[in-house]
Amino acid sequence: MTDQQQPMIHEDGLPGHESTLEPKPEWAPRYPGSGRLDGKVALITGADSGIGRAVAALYAREGADVAILYLCEHDDAAKTAEIVGREGRKAIAIAGDVGDKDFCDRAVAEVIDKLGRLDILVNNAGEQHPDKDITDISEEQLRRTFQTNIFGMFFLTQAARPHLRKGAAIVNCTSVTMYQGSKELLDYSSTKGAITAFTRSLSENLVGEGVRVNAVAPGPIWTPLNPSGGASKEKLEHFGESTPMGRPGQPNEVAPSFLFLACEDSSYMSGQVLHPNGGTIVNG
Fold first, then answer.
1. Nearest-5° angle of CA 143, CA 68, CA 172?
2. Among candidates 239, 213, 170, 190, which has minimal Cα distance to 21?
């Protein structure tokens, strides 16, 4: 790995431990499973906590084995693996940096070796660092944010592509900031715009092969990302209050969108974006 590819563990505490966060995010599925992912294998990045954990829990409840990719929060990843196991499904946890192409290649190879196949790729991992002025964004941070948020999606999709058969699904995580902008998250929101374009373009590229590509654009969701340094103190004090619902969302309010786009319920959808964002109306 080059210096620019090294994981950026900031003094702000990112990516952050869910195990130390209070109040705890709500990740548990809200209803019994109905077998919508029976026999499937899903690879989920950033699955140690937050939205990724909630998606892993819901996928497992619906019958999928899950590969948990994460950066360095080993305790959180072990907890997610335990959650998947309690649903009667297999879980493997793989630590590494999705911004490193070699790691992505090795991770997919490990999934195939240990779980036998790959049906669903969820590109969820991301990082953000608030800055009040564009001149405050260092070259290192700019490169690192793009490396994680969009380069990582390219690398993992490239590694996964030979294993994705007809009926497979890719679900990417973009953001409401792609549609609204964010004055404190210039580099982050720019990557989310790239992710939406990537989703639409990759859909056009793969839909003829029977592989669907869609995305989810969450609004403000209570995960370790923001309180661990991904948002300013001022923003945290009123986190989610600007939404029409007047509150932040919970991870298990977002996970069903990822399930819908991964299963046959959405068999006639590709290149689309769902918006669990507390009622904010965007031109999606």
1. 55
2. 239
Residue 135: both structure tokens together: 């001149």
For residue 44, the one-letter residue type is I
Does residue 201 sit in helix, strand or coil? Answer: helix
Mean pLDDT of 93-101: 98
In DSSP notation, 25-41 reads: P--S-SS----TTTT-E
70 vs 93: CA distance, rounded Å: 8
Q: Which of 112, 19, 137 is nearest to 74 (CA)?
A: 19
User: Is 96's pLDDT higher than 80?
Assistant: yes
Q: Tell me, yes or no, if 188 is annotated catalytic.
A: yes
Chain-centre distance of CA 218, in angstroms? 10
Q: Which residues pair with 65 in a beta bridge?
A: 41
Give CA 252 to chain center in angstroms: 13
pLDDT per residue over 250-273, tens digit each? 999 999 999 999 999 999 999 999
Q: Which of 70, 179, 188, 268 is labelled catalytic?
A: 188
For the entire predicted model, the pTM comes to 0.90
- Cβ burial 195-221 (10 Å sphere, 16+ → b, else e): bbebbbebbeebeeeebbbbbbbbbbb
Q: 13: part of which helix (H) or strand (E)?
A: none
Average pLDDT score over residue span 14-40: 84
Residue 267: how many CA atoms within 13 Å on its side-chain side? 5
The pLDDT tens digits of the residues spanning 218-254 come to: 999 998 766 654 455 666 667 778 899 999 999 999 9
Contact in structure between 76 and 48 (CB atoms under 8 Å):
yes
| CA distance linking residue 270 with residue 182, whole number of Å | 27
